[in-house]
Amino acid sequence: MTKINCNYLEIGADFTVSVNKSLDIRNEISRITKGNGVDVVLDTVGLESTLNLAGTLLNKNGAIVMVGLFGKEITIPLFQTVIKEYQLYGSLWGNYNELREVVDLAKTGKVKHRIQKFRLSEVNDAIELLHGGNITGHAVIIP
């Protein structure tokens, strides 16, 4: 099994922070944003713990977009949500105009994607890489 390495700056990120390796992600985000927090958190997990962390990273009027479906129910802190006036969205995708915008961004090279393909016989390797945080982009199982 191989670990896939990726320079996230190649796919359009200005900064990256590994949740698995960072001792204190809140301090790291605060350092990068000079204490302002982030505008948007894209939560690809959907657990209460990841959503609560996302709320602590947002600036005032920020947004959390939930696309992950691993959790069952969530509870968010009322005080923090009201004081920061942040928005919480659930999203499977977007509308037609947003899709066209993303495709145009990809065509100009401003948004890049990574797809790792695994044969069906390698599904357990793919799951292990996913659990270890070693999948960059999308993993696709092919027959």
Describe this structure in words.
The chain has 143 residues and is an alpha/beta fold. The chain is 32% helix and 20% strand. The chain is built from 5 helices and 5 strands; from the N terminus they run H-E-H-E-H-E-H-E-H-E. The chain has helices at residues 25-32, 48-57, 78-84, 96-107, 123-131; strands at 38-43, 58-66, 87-90, 115-119, 138-142. The strands form 2 sheets. A 3-stranded parallel beta sheet has the order 1-2-3, with helices on one face. Strands 4-5 form a two-stranded parallel sheet. The longest helix is centred in the last third of the chain and has 12 residues, at 96-107. The radius of gyration is 17 Å and the shape is globular. The model is unreliable at 1-5 (pLDDT under 50).
Estimate the global geometry from the Cα principal axes: globular
Spans of 5+ residues with little confidence (pLDDT < 50)? 1-5
Strand order of the largest sheet: 1-2-3
Helix amount, in percent?
25-40%
H/I helix tally: 5
Mean pLDDT: 82
Order of helices and strands: HEHEHEHEHE
Strand content: 15-25%
CA(first)-CA(last) distance: 19 Å
Largest sheet: number of strands, sense, barrel closure: 3 strands, parallel
Give the number of DSSP strands.
Answer: 5
